[in-house]
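Narrative of activities, Objective 1.

The group set out to show that a structural description can be obtained from nothing but a protein's sequence at a throughput compatible with the screening campaign. Below is one input-output pair from the validation batch, recorded exactly as produced.
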Amino acid sequence: MKEKKEIKLTIPSEYHYDEVAIVVMRLIAHEVGLSIERIENLERCVEEIVVNAIEHGYKGIEGENVVNIIFIFDDKSLTVEIQDFGQGCPAEVFKQIDKKDLKIRRIKDGQARQGCGIFLVRQFVDELAVESTLGQGTLVRMKMFCEKSKEE
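Output recorded for this entry:
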């Protein structure tokens, strides 16, 4: 598999549909050649981000909301893009998440754990990008490289 392939998935913004994204991700990750451990880590990340999109992205927004998931892959990497079209977040929120000390202190102090999901995802994936616009939604892009492509 030399050329990039892309699979697009749109799921309803309802909790039990996150499992559909996970099943598709596992099949692709296996084909790409990720190790079992990395597949399980990516599974946690996909679940976390999809559930965040459902829980936070569309909070207070009525209607038939959806979450788009795009899998882009070749024999070197797998990129998973998860996008909601909900309320979005100010850029400052994600800048704070990048400050590990701030996040650890919040958890120890027992304060709100907002942002912990992204913080944890950052520990498992090779590359992470978050784009969010108030009133338009959030796009999370996670990338994992194959072990064999790292060795080349």
